[in-house]
Every structure is written in C-alpha cells, then in structure tokens.
Specification:
The protein has about 425 residues and is an all-alpha fold. It is built from 23 helices and no strands. GO terms for molecular function: oxidoreductase activity.
Length: about 425
Amino acid sequence: MDLLEQSQMGTLLGLAAKLPTKPTTDRPRLQIALAWAHALLHHPRDAEQFLSIAETALVSAGDDPATVDMRVEAAFIRATVTVFDDEIDGLDEAVEGCMARASTLRPWVLCGAADVASFRAIYRFDFDDARRWQKWALPFHQRSSGPFSVIYGYCMAGIAAREQLDLPAAEASFRHAMALATDAEKGLGYGTRLTAALLGDLLYEQGHLAEADRLLDRSHTLGAEGGTVDFMLATYGTGARLKRLLGQGEAAKSRLDEGARLAQRLRLPRLEARVANERVRAGLASSAQAIDRGIRPRSDRDNGIVLLTSELEEDSMIREALTAQSDVQDLEAVYARVLALVESIDSQARPRAFLNAALLRVEVLAVAGREEAALTALWPLTEQCARLGLVRPVLDAGSAVSRLARGLRTHGVGAPVSSVLDEYLAELEQQPT
C-alpha cells in the first residue's frame, strides 16, 4: 500500500512541504505518489517536477516488474494531467500501456486507467463505452485501498449516463460517489466537496434548488482544485445560474468572474465558453465579452471537447442575437443557425445535447413570432422532460419557452394532457424564473 492510498491528498501535500527542498532521486515511489497528488489537484508544474525526478531515478533502476510498472505509472500520470487540462490527445497510449500491465499494476492505478478511458469515451460521445469501462473496473474497485480513483470512476459513469438521459443511473452514480467520499473522509473532505458539484448540477435540473445550492456552495470552496472541467462547469456555470435565480445577483456575478479568471489561468477554453454563455443568459455580456459571430468550423468532430466548446459559443451567439431585437431578416438568419446546430447533433448518440439544442430552436421560433410552430415543437419536448423529471432545461431555455411552457394547459396543441404532464406543468408554475 503506498503513500497516496494511505492518506488523503491534503495530508500528502502537507508532507511534501516538509520534505528537503533539494531533489532526491533515490525514492521514486515517493516522487510518484507526490506527482499523483499534485496532478489530481491541478498542479501540473509540481506534478511534472516530481515526475521528472522519479523518471531520472528509474532510468538506471533495471527492468524488473516493479520498476517497469513505475515507469508505466509515471507515463500514466501525464495522461491524467492531460485530462485535467481538458484535452484528449495522447490518452490512447497511456491507457494501452496500463492495460498491457494489468496483471501487475496496482488496482488503484487500473481504476485510474478506467477513469481516463471513460473520459476519452465521453468526449468521443461513446457513452456506452464510457460506462463499460467502469464495469470493467469494478473488480479493481473492490481491491483498491484508496477511494479517490473509485470516486472518479462513479462520477465518469454518471456523466455518461446523464448525457444519455439515463437520469436514475446518473443520480445513483453521483450519490454512490459522494457516499464513498464521505465515508472515507469522515466528513466534508475533498472528495465529498468534489462530488457535490455533479450531484448539485443534476438536482438543479430536476428543480431541487435548495439542495442544489447547498451542494454547489460546497464544491465552490475547492477553487482551482475543483476537479476536471466537468466539475467546474457545474460549480461556476450552474452555480452562478442558480444564484441569479435565487435573487443573489452579486454572488452570481462574483462566481462567473471567478470562473473566468480560473479558465484563463488554467487555459480551459470550455470553461471560458460556459462562463461567457452564462453571462449572455444573465444579460451581463458587454462588447468586450461578446462572442465571435463568425461561423465556427466543425471539422474536428472526433474531439468532443473542441466541439462542445464550439457549440457553447454558438448558443451564446444565438442568444445574443435574440436579445438585440433584430429585424425579421436577421431572425431568419438566426433560425438558420439554430437549425444547423440542432441538425449537427445526433439525437440518438447525444440525447441530452439534442434536447437542449431543440429547446433553443423553440426559443428562436417564438421570438421570431412563429408561435404556432414553437408550440408544436415544444409539446413533445415538454412531454419528454416531464417523463424524465427535468424541470429547469425547459425554463432555462429562454423567456419565450418558459412563457409558452407555463401556458401549455391553456394553449394545447390538440393533444390530451397526461397526469404526468399535468403534474409537471404544475411544477413549472411553482418554479422561479
């Protein structure tokens, strides 16, 4: 059992501060443990320093199985840094290196390899594969003495399930991750606050605002150490949206400003795009923050992170155009943009992304005065959200969608209102906007 598994990361980093400042190459296992801690806390320079020390020691250490495993693990830590940098290039080699040593590598590392493989699959939009990797890792979960990579595994499985709109599975994964973290940390430690971001984000979409706010406030305390970008999107994007919804405008603005600074400092374009999108939604965008209105290239479709960033920017452009009170010709051009966005998303492969884009299309239709078409398009989307228990996606799609949805009982489109939909519409009326 190594240092990282025996202690929490904060304890390990405290130990690091007490070590001699002069580099030593005679303890590569300790250097690897410290590199792990810094990598997982988004300290890439420190992680690289300890990795370089470890690799120097391993050059002349021979080729016995334990040494080879440490070399593979050191290479894999660099892949983990890549994930925390919100990139997917080079992950294949690291995962394959771990799989080739699956019979000898520590279970903790193999759990981490499954997490990286799941991350890679999520951003290739192969959500089934992402979940399969976590099933593969289950035997290693049971043998791992450290909870951190196991917690991340359940989070990755939950993210994939959520994108498929398998919301019961997503919530179960997030709650299990939080339970593991809370049990291991005996309170509100790092893992508990980390998992709070994803669970809070999901509960927000279900309309459970008070619990979501409490959880997102927990995750906010982590700052730059708040996990991969997936967690930061929830903490700073959804967290700010919820603060604004609760009437805490200054807190919302502060959280967005903090998220923007973090995105720039850590060079995270996807987080930067999400913060800009929330500013547009809140009416806080200025000319200095405006999104480029040029058509975004969509050639890099194998890199889901690049594509998602582009889609966020496209969403912002469309919303900016709608608030500019454009003339009919301009709105027709905006409608063409939103239609292209909807058609670019495979509804079967990416059901959550398609739902949100389809709701944005309804908003454009309504603002353009095509209310009958908007109502016709909104009805099945609202029924879908009612079945799934998704409250906020409809209300957050835009003021026009929110108004139409709240009036569906009155407007109707010739279809009967089921009991599930009736209860859902009642819930919409109780939610703040």
